[in-house]
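call fold(seq) -> tokens
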Amino acid sequence: MTEQRHSALAIHPIAVEEGEGELLRRRQIVRRTRWLVLIVLVLLALGAARTVFVRIANARALEAGTSERAKQYVQTALPRVPTTGQTLALPGTLQGFVQSPISARASGYLKRWTKDIGSRVEKGELLAEIETPEIDQQLSQAVAVRAQAASGLELARSTADRWEALRKKDVVSQQDLDERRSAVSQATSNVAAADANVQRLKQTEGFKRVVAPFAGVITRRNVDVGDLIDAGAGGGAGRALFLLAQTDPLRVYINVPQAYAQLVKAGQPVVVTQAELRGQSFKGQVARTAGSIDTTTRMMQVEVSLPNKDGALLPGAYVQVSLPLAASRTLTVPSNALLFRAEGTRIAVVDAKGRVGLRAVTLGRNYGENVEVIDGLEGTDRMVLNPSDSLAEGDIVAVAPEAPPAAAKAAPPVMPKKEPA
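ret:
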């Protein structure tokens, strides 16, 4: 091969004098080239394998994520039996333990009054006096009539005694003697009637003094000096002169709904609060219950007795009565576990395999956040909280793990006050 041909092929001609050393160098170059190609091919194979592995891993992760997102997670809870009872708050109005209008029994004009509103009086203390001129004259007339009847009785008795003696001598007939005896009986009855009339008028005249029938506070005075006092036609009650109330203890009447009536018992403690007396509460107890439900309101009337030694509470005030009720042994569930469907109220429960079942339940009292379940649920049934409207019978769900209790929030730091410049 000529030198020109070797130059065209970019191959240096091997001189004879180079010998075997040049040939060895070329062989080393070829070997290095082969190793380089082999390394490149290995790197390409590793890159391809890595790409395939990553794609397979991504596909598996995508499939697992899709399956995970396809699961329907639900939060569950178990029904509870309340250990403490509910507190029922009901409105009420304070009343005096004994509260009565004081009316006059005798008609006349008010001569004077001795007690005004806010006055504390004792039993039998004078409240007012009434002038009764008509009753005074009637009493005088009744006394005179009684004296007249007594004179007639004396005459009838003496006449009967004389006729008794004449009858023994057979001077008069038995009929005449019987008539004289009858006259004595009539005269005796007339005297008794006159005595009764005198006593009646004396008692009526005694009502000129209006006295307190019990110890209490005068809460109202409706008359003044010179007012005409009418005891009422036919003996009926007229206008009330005073209103007297016993303020220690007080009474409070409340109406308990039928749903809670069975839980209220006599002697049960209560707590009474008044909005105007902030921070103060007063302890009382249930004195008695009506023992029946009013057919109109479907409520039971309950009377509460409330001590008021210091007089802090006033009759007529509007108060709130907190009535602690005994714990019920009925299961209670959260309100957010209820499903309201066209076929009725349902609760979704989850079994051990994650299968959903819809239970028809009968509800009892509603406590706001919790509701009583009377029938349709067992204490071991795991309920679904906040169930979706699309949840159906037989759905497969996954129970979400319970979240750990939230840590208490730290109180905000108190910033120091800046000193004025």
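The radius of gyration is 54 Å.
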